[in-house]
Write a structure and sequence with these properties.
Helix content: 25-40%
Oligomer: single chain
CATH architecture of the largest domain: 3-Layer(aba) Sandwich
Strand content: 15-25%
Number of strands: 14
Largest sheet: 8 strands, mixed
Number of helices: 9
């Protein structure tokens, strides 16, 4: 076959549907792409604790994974007691961001990642977070360097948070707003793209053989990084605008279509139950 490709795959809204399941066409395409020798790297905003079950579900126990929007890179190792080693974990001081966010939105809740454990939060979080979630005083959120800070409101919208980020000065920080009122802040210069570049160099994959698939604003940098950046069909306009192409949405198995187009993969002969 031709040279193996490095494929950066977002999880939520790309590999997983919005109810948290992997559709059969995607599952089979992942398996065939790996069998064909391609390097599939999950690149996600999820922390380590939230990424591991998806890797296990897909049967991926070797290679690499990018977590926390690029702040954490894992080397997967089935022989290791935890199944992985932390190859890189980049942290930052959350205090300046916390100072800007304090009282910035009436019902917003803040979470900082507790690497490999879960999250420390300013109040009970309105939606599920992976791992152990501990409510702590505001000052404790800023007590130690972290890989990621998350700011969420159950009543706001993504447009509200985009405006908020500009209003309070977050344009000077590395941040991404999700499909809802969800804001992630990461170390300066750290993105899914920066972590995938580290993986690319370790694997010795040529830049011309890189692919990335994603559906949200935190995927923009990796879509620009890849030689072939693919946006999901339901991605926001600013995400689709930077992509080289647009595939079907997650319910249309867009990620499977991209994987099936790689050298040596194809659609296969597996009957898929709908």
């Amino acid at each position: 076959m031709s040279a193996p490709h490095l494929v950066g795959l977002d999880i939520d809204g790309t590999i997983l549907t919005h109810d948290g399941t992997v559709r059969d066409p995607v599952r089979y395409a992942v398996a065939r792409a790996r069998e064909a020798g391609h390097h599939l790297v999950l690149a996600t905003g999820r922390g380590v604790v939230g990424t591991l079950p998806v890797l296990a579900d897909l049967g991926i126990d070797q290679g690499y994974a990018v977590c926390s929007n690029g702040a954490v890179t894992l080397a997967l190792d089935p022989g290791h007691p935890s199944g992985y080693e932390v190859l890189e974990a980049i942290t930052f001081d959350p205090a300046p961001a916390l100072g800007l966010l304090h009282d910035a939105w009436p019902d917003a809740v803040v979470a900082v990642e507790d690497l490999g454990v879960g999250f420390k939060v300013s109040a009970p979080f309105p939606i599920h977070l992976e791992g152990t979630v501990t409510v702590v005083p505001w000052a404790e959120l800023a007590a130690t360097p972290v890989t990621r800070l998350t700011f969420h409101s159950p009543t706001g919208t993504s447009e509200d948070f985009l405006a908020l980020a500009h209003r309070i000065g977050l344009h000077e920080m590395n941040y991404a707003v999700g499909y809802s009122a969800w804001l992630d802040i990461n170390p300066e210069g750290v993105t899914k793209a920066s972590a995938l570049e580290l993986v690319r160099r370790r694997l010795g994959v040529g830049p011309q053989h890189t692919v990335a698939v994603g559906d949200q604003r935190n995927d923009i940098d990796m879509l620009r990084w890849a030689a072939r950046g693919v946006a999901m069909g339901d991605a926001p306009e600013e995400v689709r605008a930077v992509a080289d192409e647009v595939t079907a949405d997650v319910l249309g198995d867009g990620a499977a279509r991209v994987l099936e187009s790689l050298p040596g993969v194809g659609r296969g002969d597996v009957a898929v139950a709908r």
